[in-house]
Structure to design on (772 residues):
């Protein structure tokens, strides 16, 4: 009797708690047996609510489509109420009551915004990154979101590509560690505060030619396997619930329709069992790529292994006809539908469709003290100190004309809270740009500007003088183009500059907040010139010419070309985009409460023409040694610039100094399947307590294919008090020596290896061992 009653309730309420208690397969079999073809295709349809813009605006009657069972998921619908209402329609008004997936780009935090992913990677703090994803999930679920389009694990070696901001940088090993951590942080055990992750953009999107977004990708399988694919695979193995295919072509085929990638590699080789969604509108873009009309691209996409169509309205319009025409099979549709339903089951949506819509969580779970503290701590860990001049007691010709009289006897940073501090630059008093690109849950009004944070930090001990100094770009159109909803006031450059120079004259130290606006990196923000925009650089030159200590805080979503700055500006702290707590975090570091500890995860080029530049490159037959000072004829180098980067991968200074002892290996031979360990003593020899990132690199000296000059294989972020030292030990096993050979077999080949350890990829000590 009781059972019958429950069943009646279950049918009335659509699906129910009772139903989901069944094992997943059984539950989905029963559900699918009830579904019409139209309802199945509906599950494969994802459309936007346009409350945030992350692609072309597509207006669709979401409520109506949901009621008719023609929508499986939504994105960019903002606000718990709105989500709840659509969910209510799905559950109560659609025939079978199947709840919706609710997606959004939660890339680096939600309302508590964490630093952009590239910056987070520079912390090399995997636990903190995981925690950041956990917090983002908690805030997002409080808004009703249950699915996030993150992590982005595209390896990128071309900083012209704006989307380098969204990933972990150039290294596949670090990319794996971060990808896995984010999946864990987001998904947990699919509890009430967890979301489903979506690993993107599969695959190779970061290798877009010339760094131009959406552009062609073309590379050998060996390179793919050895340099690009590992982070996707690691994230899949970490259990990511979904994957997003990328916009680009691979082997000439738009990925959305690329069966080799989506089925042969992802599903068959890697045994991936989650679902695959397209990127925004990319079934339609495959038409533009030139492989056929929408019916062809829909057919190919589905057969290739695409399960859900994001914003193309292609599956919903084409699949029924394609099935009737015998171009696709019922099984093709059923497989895709099943995977989408599995995702909903895993999220617990059938059990409680409103589990992510609890009103009281809006009060407690968003932008709270715990989250803000974590974001502030994380931000401070991401800043990379590139230069901190020890002392200057000189009168000199400047490289840009004029004389400079300068004198100070200690490193410029940290600053003392005393005297007058001139804070200058277009990013010094701006609220909306601190968070960086892809901040879809931010509320800038709640955050501090750097100026406000600095005034708070110094209190009445020092005086902060402020001037904007210049625009981001002198050219209004270019600046407008880079805005995308995050404006910075236009000023009269000449007047603003005069005012900046006036306060600089009065000040004891000058802090420049310059660089990119948030939207100058991220999607569709490729740049062909990676230096500080001219108008900012001119002002910076004038400020340096005052001879006063100058600190450049470089805001950027990518490596910047800063050769002039590296030579002339006394102190440079790369602050990326640090999220909602940027202002306070910068003050924590520049006033010395915390020592900088970020280490670059993308190589900083000296000149644009060096791009692509990355540390784990192959050797040539005519290599020029690192550090070579002159051009060498008939060698692999440039006439006009040396090969070395401005700052290498893994680089980052501190307020303290670290001394590395002689590394010791536990042996000089290793059997296949065996182990060695390397130990090195690291000592904090300076006056500040600080963190160091100890890095381990390996090179295969002779193999069946040419192997990189070094590859990161381990790292540890350690905290050392002033004067403290510690042994750091890395295990080296056969798996770390494996690579994909020309037959794409993943093997470790016996022979000699070099193992290197140090605080960046350039300054290492090395030892050798033999694998036998
Ligand atoms: C981006 C994706 C994003 C999607 C949904 C696309 O334009 O490439 O990274 O997840 O939009 O907003």
């Amino acid at each position: 009797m009781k059972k019958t009653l429950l069943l009646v309730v279950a049918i009335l309420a659509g699906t129910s708690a009772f139903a989901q208690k069944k094992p997943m397969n059984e539950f989905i079999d029963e559900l699918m047996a009830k579904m019409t073809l139209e309802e199945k295709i509906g599950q494969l349809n994802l459309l936007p609510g346009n409350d945030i813009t992350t692609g072309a605006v597509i207006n669709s009657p979401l409520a109506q489509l949901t009621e008719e069972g023609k929508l499986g998921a939504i994105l960019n619908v903002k606000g718990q109420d709105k989500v709840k209402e659509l969910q209510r329609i799905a559950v109560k008004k659609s025939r079978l009551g199947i709840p919706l997936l609710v997606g959004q780009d939660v890339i680096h935090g939600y309302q508590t915004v964490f630093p952009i992913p590239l910056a987070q990677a520079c912390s090399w703090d995997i636990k903190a990154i995981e925690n950041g994803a956990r917090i983002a999930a908690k805030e997002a679920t409080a808004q009703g979101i249950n699915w996030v389009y993150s992590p982005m694990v595209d390896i990128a070696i071309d900083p012209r590509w704006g989307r380098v901001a969204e990933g972990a940088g150039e290294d596949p090993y670090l990319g794996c560690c971060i990808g896995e951590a984010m999946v864990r942080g987001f998904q947990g055990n699919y509890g009430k505060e967890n979301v489903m992750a979506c690993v993107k953009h599969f695959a190779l999107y970061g290798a877009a030619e010339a760094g131009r977004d959406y552009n062609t990708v073309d590379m050998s399988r060996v390179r793919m396997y050895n340099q690009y694919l590992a982070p996707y695979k690691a994230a899949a193995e970490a259990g990511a619930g979904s994957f997003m295919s990328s916009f680009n072509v691979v082997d000439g085929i738009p990925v959305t329709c690329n069966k080799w990638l989506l089925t042969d590699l992802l599903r068959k080789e890697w045994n991936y069992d989650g679902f695959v969604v397209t990127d925004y509108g990319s079934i339609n873009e495959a038409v533009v790529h030139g492989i056929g009309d929408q019916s062809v691209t829909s057919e190919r996409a589905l057969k290739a292994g695409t399960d859900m169509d994001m914003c193309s309205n292609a599956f919903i319009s084409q699949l029924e006809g394609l099935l009737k025409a015998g171009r696709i099979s019922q099984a093709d549709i059923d497989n895709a539908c099943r995977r989408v339903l599995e995702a909903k089951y895993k999220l617990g949506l059938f059990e409680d469709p409103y589990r992510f819509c609890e009103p009281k969580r809006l009060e407690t779970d968003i932008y709270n003290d715990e989250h803000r503290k974590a974001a502030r701590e994380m931000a401070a860990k991401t800043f990379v100190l590139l230069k901190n001049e020890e002392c200057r007691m000189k009168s000199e010709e400047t490289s840009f004309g004029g004389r400079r009289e300068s004198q100070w006897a200690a490193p410029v940073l940290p600053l003392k809270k005393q005297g007058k501090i001139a804070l200058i630059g277009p990013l010094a008093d701006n609220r909306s740009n601190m968070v960086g690109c892809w901040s879809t849950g931010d509320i800038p009004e709640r955050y501090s500007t750097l100026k406000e944070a600095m005034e708070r930090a110094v209190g009445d001990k020092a005086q902060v003088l402020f001037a904007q100094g210049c625009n981001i770009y002198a050219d209004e159109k270019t600046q407008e183009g880079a805005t995308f909803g995050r404006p910075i006031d236009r000023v009269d450059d000449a007047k603003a500059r005069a005012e900046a120079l006036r306060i600089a004259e009065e000040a004891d130290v000058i802090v420049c907040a310059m660089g990119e606006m948030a939207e100058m990196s991220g999607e569709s923000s490729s740049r062909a010139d990676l230096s500080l925009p001219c108008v900012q650089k001119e002002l910076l030159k004038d400020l340096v010419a005052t001879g006063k200590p100058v600190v450049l805080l470089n805001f950027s979503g990518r490596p910047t070309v800063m050769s002039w700055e590296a030579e002339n500006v006394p102190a440079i702290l790369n602050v990326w985009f640090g999220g909602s707590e940027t202002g306070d975090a910068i003050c924590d570091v520049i006033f010395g409460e915390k020592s900088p500890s970020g280490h670059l995860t993308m190589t900083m080029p000296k000149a644009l023409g060096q791009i692509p530049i990355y540390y784990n490159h192959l050797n040539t037959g005519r290599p020029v040694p690192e550090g070579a000072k002159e051009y060498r004829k008939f060698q692999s180098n440039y006439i006009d610039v040396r090969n070395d980067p401005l700052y290498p991968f893994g680089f980052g200074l501190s307020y303290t100094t670290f001394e590395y002892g002689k590394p010791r290996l536990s042996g000089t031979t290793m059997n296949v399947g065996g182990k060695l360990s390397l130990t090195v003593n690291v000592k904090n020899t300076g006056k500040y307590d600080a963190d160091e990132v100890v890095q381990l690199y390996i090179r295969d000296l002779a193999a069946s294919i040419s192997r990189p000059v070094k590859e990161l294989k381990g790292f540890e972020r350690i905290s050392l008090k002033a004067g403290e030292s510690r042994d750091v030990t890395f295990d080296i096993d056969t798996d770390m020596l494996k690579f994909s050979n020309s037959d794409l077999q993943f093997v470790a080949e016996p022979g000699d290896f070099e193992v290197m350890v140090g605080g960046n990829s350039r300054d290492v000590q090395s030892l050798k061992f033999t694998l036998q």
About this structure: Residues 203 and 229 are 7 Å apart (CA to CA). The radius of gyration is 27 Å. The longest helix spans residues 126-142.
